[in-house]
Amino acid sequence: MPRINAAAALQISMLLFALPAQYFISQWYGTDSAERIQITERLITASWSISTRSYLSLDAWANRLKLWLSKTRQGEGIRLKDTIKEEGQNWYYGENKTKSGDNEAKPHSYFAESTHVHSPKPEYIKFRVGQVIIHRRFGYSGVIVGWDVKANTPEEQLQPRYPPVKQDLKYTPHYRILINKANSFGKSTAYVPEEEITVIMGLEVYHPDMETYFSGYDGSKYIMQPWLKKLYPHD
User: Fold this and answer.
1) Domain CATH code at residue 174
2) Which backbone phi and psi does 68 adopt, to 5 degrees?
């Protein structure tokens, strides 16, 4: 439940009792004792009614909590995007460009979008198409829809992505990810090195292109559509 600081409590108290107090003062003087008792009773009843509706109501606090959570999530999303930008990790977070039924040969496509058959599969490729992952640093979840044995992207984009101390990462497996829309990450796809992700089971992914790539979910991984299975026969 959101906390109320001293200043907020004071403002609430002033708003709560301002109008009843004004009415009480105007009515108190010039009345006999019986009328004063009635006025006091009405004041107490009205104040209690306002408090019950506004501050002692579970529905009222639930609405405040929802508003607070909404603002918190928006703030976290902004901070996450700022962090990605500042650290140079926005090398490839973009919109998905693969369309359903797009089986044209693209042997030189970047970002694990090549349509050549990935066979044989090297033993050092740790993950498989259809597995659900979580990004180790940024926390978003997603599903793998493709992989490359090493970073497959224009060289001019590799340089800002991998400074000299991280040059070795260029030669490690990279995976194309459909990002779970439930994370409100702001981007739909990612292309990341193997060391930045870890597999998780029992988590479903929501993305508008899921049916393009997969026919279902068995609790541990997504089942590839026939066209995708042809490209990754060993996954």
Assistant:
1) 2.30.30.390
2) -65, -45
Rg (CA), the chain: 29
Separation CA 63–CA 52 (nearest Å):
15
- Residue 72, in any domain of the structure: no
Terminal-to-terminal C-alpha distance of the chain: 46
Q: How many domains does the chain have?
A: 1
Query: Where does 28-151 show beta strands of DSSP type E?
Result: 93-94, 132-135, 141-148
Q: pLDDT tens track of the chain, all 235 residues?
A: 555 565 556 566 665 565 555 555 555 555 566 666 666 666 676 666 655 555 556 666 666 665 666 555 555 555 555 555 544 445 567 665 544 444 444 445 788 888 899 999 999 999 999 999 999 988 999 999 999 999 988 877 777 777 788 888 889 999 999 999 988 777 889 999 999 999 999 999 999 999 999 999 998 999 999 999 999 999 9
Predicted TM-score (pTM) of the model is 0.60
Per the DSSP assignment, residues forming a β-bridge with 199 are 133
> Which two tokens mark 188?
């739909």
